[in-house]
């Protein structure tokens, strides 16, 4: 895709931003979800409510935060509440229409692992853990997931069920007493995936411009299902690209003030 | 009743070997100076509690202060993994560490239960989550009214909680503002509470009536440590030192580099050194 004027990561962020609506109340995960949510807010969804787990409700940062608790989030929020209030009244209380998560490991049913690679008691790699995700996954009305594709990240079997997606598929969520929709959309750097209505397995419904089925399969650890009618994701518009790049440039400049050239490395957004 | 004392004394008086200790702060207002003082005093066998263990817990774990960690997300915010903690978990270096791992919702509820004087917290959580397999402190209860199955975890009741706050007044009432996190609950859940503050002001009479205030009689000791939350930030005083978090990733990756850094910046340093560390981060 080197002849195109956008990168796969930019396409991913912009495709994810398009899925967000102005009336969404979105619990935002740090990293790629945060970039997508803010592009949505700065383009077609100015009224979207963005919530970060540090307690900031209705935040409108001018630059992307490095962490879920950056001061910028609080300064631009409608209100900032305590962490227990955030999880009890707002998430558990059912006020969140959409949880937007990233993943270290993901399986075909949208189950997420951010806890360990390997055995829990003797891990090969100890990851940060679940944080807010286990309850976001069950209490938000639906879940979107975004991540760059790789065989390490998209695996046949995740090592640990940090956050429950559709379990083993079908009506598994209902069977264990979860009444929310669960993973409803997966946006990668190559494609858009939706769960099959029956099996709940993520199925490719749209390829990004210039991406082949083979590329999607080569970077995915399970045998990929493609929809009968496969769309092509519209390329980023000039406005979308400008919005994302301006946001990144502002972010870099802002974080440079205190972190020199490291800010870009520090920000995992988009 | 809060007493104003130097940080060294506040830690010596309130933190003992074997304590359950919480150094709380949710990205903002992290009590780094207090944690460094604990490291200098060589306290042992702590059970460290925190929702979001970050650089300071990496330092305490790397220096061998902790026998157990109760937590819900252990990461270097915006950067990645905690390398000293990983070394302890993966290689038992410098000592093995026991983990009691929760989700944020569970920890937040558990602190709140501690503050509320309840033995446990009940919430809708851990549905389908594998942590309930590896953590024996995650149980289920049935709601006696609706029959719904809910999660239960024990209340968090620290022996001592350390937090950093913006300011105290002369009486020792403490103001926290901005991202207030879990600090109020962590203080009210604990037997003893130590607060470091940026400054002491005459009184709070001109403040908004609904701000987060800890009355002086809920706080054991207050130490004035300007810059005491560095490299995190104090809303209204100074910005986050993002470069330090990035730098930590490099330092913590190597055992010897880590020890040398700790000797230079913690063991041989004092609480008074924090003011200079935030000098260029203050709002102009």
Strand content of chain A: 15-25%
State the major sheet of chain B: 10 strands, mixed
Strand content of chain B: 15-25%
Strand order of the largest sheet of chain A: 4-3-2-1-5-10-11-12-13-14
Order of helix and strand elements from N to C terminus of chain A: HEHEEHEHEEEEEHEHEEEHEHH
What's the Cα radius of gyration of chain B?
Answer: 19 Å
Shape of chain B: globular
Can you give a write-up of this model?
The complex is a heterodimer of chains A (270) and B (284). Helix content of chain A is 30%, strand content 21%. Chain A is α/β, with parallel strands linked by helices and 270 residues long. In chain A, strands 4-3-2-1-5-10-11-12-13-14 form a ten-stranded mixed β-sheet, with helices on both faces. In chain A, strands 6-7 form a two-stranded antiparallel ribbon. Chain A has a two-stranded antiparallel ribbon with strand order 8-9. In chain A, β2 (49-52) and β3 form a beta hairpin. In chain A, α1 (8-18) crosses α2. The radius of gyration of chain A is 18 Å and the shape is globular. The two termini of chain A are 17 Å apart. With 284 residues, chain B is α/β, with parallel strands linked by helices. Chain B contains ten helices and 13 strands. In chain B, the strands form two sheets. In chain B, strands 1, 2, 3, 4, 5, 9, 10, 11, 12 and 13 form a ten-stranded mixed β-sheet that branches. A three-stranded antiparallel β-sheet of chain B has the order 6-8-7, with helices on one face. The longest helix of chain B is centred in the C-terminal third of the chain and has 13 residues, at 255-267.
Main attributes of the structure:
heterodimer, A: alpha/beta, 9 helices, 30% helix, globular, disordered C terminus, B: 284 residues, alpha/beta, 13 strands
In terms of topology, how is this protein built?
The complex is a heterodimer of chains A (270) and B (284).
Chain A: H1 8-18, E1 25-28, H2 32-42, E2 49-52, E3 56-57, H3 71-75, E4 79-80, H4 83-92, E5 98-101, E6 105-106, E7 112-113, E8 116-118, E9 123-126, H5 133-139, E10 142-146, H6 172-175, E11 183-187, E12 191-195, E13 202-207, H7 213-218, E14 225-232, H8 238-259, H9 263-266
Helix pairs in contact in A: 1-2, 2-8
Chain B: E1 3-4, H1 7-14, E2 20-23, H2 32-40, E3 46-50, H3 55-62, E4 66-71, H4 83-91, E5 98-101, H5 104-115, E6 120-123, H6 131-134, E7 139-142, E8 149-154, E9 160-169, E10 174-176, H7 183-189, E11 192-201, E12 212-214, E13 221-224, H8 242-251, H9 255-267, H10 274-277
Helix pairs in contact in B: 1-2, 2-3, 3-4, 5-7
